[in-house]
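The data are quoted verbatim here:
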Amino acid sequence: MENTNTLLYLCLILLSISLHFVLTQSAPENSLITQLPGFNGTLPSKHYAGYVTVEKSHEKNLYYYFVASEGNPSKDPVVLWLNGGPGCSSFDGFVYEHGPFNFEKPKTKGTLPKLHLNPYSWSKVSNIIYLDSPAGVGFSYSKNKTDYNTGDFQTAFDTHAFLLEWFKLYPEFLPNPLFISGESFAGIYVPTLAHEIAKGIDSGVTPKLNFKGYLIGNAVTDKIFDGNALVPFAHGMGLISDQLFETVTAQCKGKFYGLPDTQECKSVLGRVYLNIGYLNIYDILEPCYHDSSDSEKLANATNIPHSFRQLGETEKPMPVRKRMFGRAWPLGAPVTDGIVPNWPQLSVGAHVQCTDDEVATEWLNNDAVRKAIHTVEKSVVSEWDLCTNAITYDHDSGSMIKFHRDLTSRGYRALIFSGDHDMCVPYTGSQAWTRAMGYNIVDEWRPWFVDDQVAGYTIAYDKNLTFTTIKGAGHTVPEYKPKESLYFYQHFLNGIPL
């Protein structure tokens, strides 16, 4: 009997070793990235990239770049990152926000940027997947171009399919906690995807994802709350006077979004936009350049946001931005025939240039870089764009509040965070809708600190819902406040209050 027990024990040990070997060796080696043009040295962790087919008959393929954690990849959470738009590549987050590198702009045009290690990369504490979604965005594509007509529900369905297939390719990460994250129009992507994941878990879809929660920055959520956010934000930031705020509130009866109900409301809203129109809507503290003669100043500016050069347009009632002559309008701006009321007329070509995607465009369209990161050949995807107009997107899911309510009621953790100087999706809207959920406050509004300095403010509700501001940050929070962003990110993943 003793010999039998000993033999059984040895078999169990060998089985455990074999399973460990299979799990740790199962990542597809042909997706491994061994070097990156512009970076000298050893990568801080394993990087993988490639395609997952989410619809075989159409050859619909979503491109991902996976950065294994620099900490403990076998235990650290897996986080999916989605940029917004709709139509913007998640390389925005990789290059400009919280990826493993800081990109140094080259002095000579046409040469590659230099890559330096980012001390505040989110890969310090998590595995992270940067996904180009939906098909037609970034390096993702479909052989059937009808797939470029898409919307909220189809995008969520495809991204869920991507995750299921991705974990089949990387089964060693299946036990790890899974979180979904993103910013801006990902305020639509994330809750709809989370809902799809939760449905799949409930119905027994395999592989079973170890989904724990989600976090979204400056999140597009609800046309009423988001549309009404701008005027109170502008007043609170000192961009419009008390008198104008009182007048617009009275004339518009507190409704500041969509088409004005009266000529008086239309006129006074025009005065509001006349006051704020020349600001950088992604961060009101940062410069905005008004004509092409200032391009040299733009190139030398260091802290302006590089994100969201152009957004896919939609006929639905909640586009992220309206554009006139290249100008980006804040969410909720009333537009009649493309013209903001009482706005000074600009000639075509005169525009406010607030963003710059040159570094990412130069790097990701380089042949050596594309080969290194395993993108499809240029005959299929000829050029990478930060944001594309190639897709037609239908915002068909309505308000996200119903999704947030369902998900938090199921016990999934949610962090809604806002850079408090963003005028594109102002924090005032996010604060209003999280409060309107009606949950009990479990941690009163208070400051949170990094290095003994106030980094922002936070309030926690029951059902694991938290709203947090980041002081001085714009639309793309980690781009402006990398240290503070890594701090709140790590706390959220670990379930620790700020």
